[in-house]
Specification:
Strand content of chain B: under 5%
Number of strands of chain B: 2
Largest interface: A-B, 47 and 50 residues
Distance between the termini of chain A: 14 Å
Number of helices of chain A: 15
Strand order of the largest sheet of chain B: 1-2
Oligomer: heterodimer
Structural class of chain B: mainly alpha
Number of helices of chain B: 11
Distance between the termini of chain B: 52 Å
Number of strands of chain A: 0
Low-confidence stretches of chain A: none
Radius of gyration of chain A: 20 Å
Order of helices and strands of chain B: HHHHEEHHHHHHH
Structural class of chain A: mainly alpha
Mean pLDDT of chain B: 83
Number of domains of chain B: 1
Low-confidence stretches of chain B: 1-5
Helix content of chain A: over 70%
CATH topology of chain B: ABC transporter involved in vitamin B12 uptake, BtuC
Strand content of chain A: under 5%
Largest sheet of chain B: 2 strands, antiparallel
Radius of gyration of chain B: 20 Å
Chain lengths: 323, 293
């Protein structure tokens, strides 16, 4: 076992032990949110790191959250079935939009704008079907009495923390799996030069679709989890352009090309948002977002590799590479 | 049954004409975005938010300072033009040599900044100019005067831009840069200045759109989200940077929204337009008028 693996295991054990030692409900709540969003951001970065910048992930997340909640409320389907169904729905949506994009070589700005349209569509559909989804006022899954595994509803934060932790670790494992697969080399070749990659025998469309599908499925799961945890969703918090942008920003802030980058991004952006929210209080609505937005722009202008990415780059330049 | 059909037809014609009127403003927005993209090769994700600021500008000039509408309009256009130039100078220019995706995301950050700035400065209340223009009645069809005015002004604005691009030296330089970025710098054209002028021009178009939209819609910090995405769709459908394509696509979309809204809610009109967009992506992925390679 090398020191790197040992550090991972120690860190993981510490994270599992944490809620049993430290029980402040507010801090646990923030941690659960950070874990769920970290998972969502990691899902985004799985395709984002290969230059497939999608602003449609707000759409996938919205599908994940709303399909799960709608199935539970209207048909009484347990989230244990509802979540896979919602992931399937997001996957189909991803394929329907992504296939023509990849088949006809829609890249760069075009791809960003087409996916942007996707999150716009999901937001509008949720708002338009207000008879079922509650429209922009939001939607609450029916509550069960107390904690129930079948309904995936828990009153205590510790269970949620452990679920979120588990899913987050799974997300990192998928990231790692993609990182070590042939797909990674294929995708890197594609993002450098699509024609050259195709000429070298890479099935460009299939590889891109595979990565997009994995990313969309995971994002839908994140949306469903967020819904089950918060028990209240609105079109603006789980879908639409702002959620998509939020994902991209967090990943950029943390670092796009390292496995823990999206997580660091989630930690920084969520903590920042919370600190600003509490700091400014209720007397100044909007100030927190204003500072947040300015910081994001500064980040993209001055630190495009992200915090973790820049630190690792610095370390590499100084000379003690570990990996 | 007979009379039902008659009423239906009248509504249909009314919806179609209203679609054309809506198309004018959408075409104006698409023109501004296409101009920026065609020349600087950057997509301003925050374009609709510039319009939102312009609408607030109009609101304050008219309601707070008591200026007349026609006096406020040029001021609001100047304001947004300055904002466009500022956006280019502060955010886009430092990123021009970086990866294109960063420019796009930076303007996405500006979207956040402008939205929250509006929330901080103007609050989240819905505001309107308080100007109620009369409704015109023509053969049992109703058209709001504000829409007619918008269409006329949008058409005039686009004509002015057309002649500016065709007849002036700077316009020619802008079109030349859109064709070949590197060569123009070698020809002794100051690309930085042209970029700045283009950004100001794009801003001015957003400002004009703001003056027209404020007549029909209430202003609030998130109003940009209700026509921002549709503008991007129009530009992509027409082919990014393709002025004629954007123009045609704007009217196509406006008709779909207007006719779709006739049968159900306006939101379903939008959903229909989005669906149409995705189908078109299968058929003509590089835009309506793209030449097949």
């Amino acid at each position: 076992m090398n020191p790197r693996q040992a550090a991972w295991i120690v860190g993981l054990v510490a994270l599992i032990a944490l809620p049993f030692v430290y029980r402040d409900p507010y801090h646990l709540h923030i941690l659960v949110l950070i874990l769920i969003w970290s998972f969502a951001y990691t899902s985004w970065s799985i395709m984002g790191r290969f230059g497939l910048v999608s602003l449609g992930h707000g759409g996938f997340m919205g599908v994940g959250a709303y399909v799960t909640a709608l199935l539970w409320n209207h048909l009484g389907v347990s989230p244990w079935i509802g979540i896979p169904v919602s992931m399937l729905a997001a996957g189909v949506l991803a394929l329907v939009v992504a296939y023509p994009c990849f088949r006809f070589r829609i890249t760069g700005h075009y791809f960003v704008l087409v996916t942007l349209a996707l999150s716009g569509i999901v937001l509008q559909v949720i708002t338009a079907t207000r008879d079922y989804t509650g429209g922009s006022l939001g939607y609450t899954p029916n509550r069960t009495k107390g904690s129930q595994w079948l309904a995936l509803q828990f009153d205590d934060k510790i269970t949620w923390y452990l679920i979120a932790l588990f899913v987050w670790v799974m997300g990192l494992l998928v990231w790692r799996w993609v990182d070590r697969s042939m797909s990674r080399y294929a995708m890197e070749a594609i993002s450098d030069d699509e024609d050259a990659a195709a000429a070298a025998g890479v099935n460009v469309t299939a590889e891109k679709l595979k990565i997009t599908l994995i990313s969309a499925l995971m994002t839908a799961l994140a949306g469903a989890l967020y819904c089950q945890y918060q028990m209240f969703i609105t079109p603006d918090t789980v879908s639409g352009i702002s959620v998509s942008l939020q994902m991209v920003f967090a990943v950029i802030v943390g670092g796009l090309y390292v496995s823990l980058g999206p997580t660091i991004g989630a930690v920084i952006t969520i903590m920042l948002a919370e600190i600003l929210r509490i700091g400014f209080g209720t007397k100044a609505v909007g100030w927190d977002n204003l500072v947040y937005g300015v910081l994001l722009v500064l980040f993209i202008v001055f630190l495009p590799r992200g915090i973790l990415g820049s630190l690792l780059n610095l370390r590499r330049r100084v000379g003690w590479t570990s990996s | 049954m007979e009379s039902f059909l008659e009423i239906f037809d009248i509504y249909l014609v009314e919806a179609m004409i209203n679609g054309i009127l809506l198309g004018g403003v959408l075409a104006l927005l698409a023109l501004g975005l296409n101009l920026i993209f065609g020349v600087i090769d950057v997509t301003w994700i925050c374009y609709a938010e510039l319009v939102m600021i312009g609408m607030y500008g109009m609101y304050y000039l008219v309601q707070y300072y008591g200026l007349s509408y026609y006096l406020s309009a040029p001021l609001a256009i100047l304001l947004v033009a300055a904002l466009g130039a500022l956006l280019h100078y502060l955010v886009i220019e430092p990123l021009l040599s970086g990866p294109p995706i960063n420019q796009l995301l930076a303007t996405g950050g500006v979207l956040f900044v402008l939205q929250s700035f509006a929330t901080v400065a103007f609050g989240i209340d819905f505001r309107n100019l308080g100007i109620r223009l009369p409704v015109l009645q023509f053969a049992e069809m109703h058209f709001s005067y504000s829409r007619l005015l918008s269409f006329g002004a949008a058409a005039a604005g686009m004509t002015v831009v057309y002649f500016f691009m065709k007849r002036t030296y700077i316009g020619t330089a802008i079109r030349a840069i859109a064709q070949d970025r590197q060569i123009m710098a070698l020809m002794g054209v100051d690309t930085r200045r042209i970029y700045l002028i283009t950004s100001a021009l794009g801003g001015a178009l957003a400002g004009l759109a703001a003056c027209l939209l404020v007549l029909q819609y209430d202003v609030h910090p998130f109003v940009g989200l209700s026509f921002g995405p549709i503008t991007f769709l129009i530009c992509v459908l027409g082919g990014l940077g393709n002025f004629v394509g954007g123009f045609v696509a704007a009217f196509l979309f406006a008709e779909i929204i207007s006719l779709g809204g006739l049968f159900s809610d306006l939101e379903w009109g939008y959903v229909l337009a989005f669906a149409f967009f995705i189908v078109m992506m299968f058929i003509r992925p590089a835009g309506l008028f793209a030449r097949r390679s």
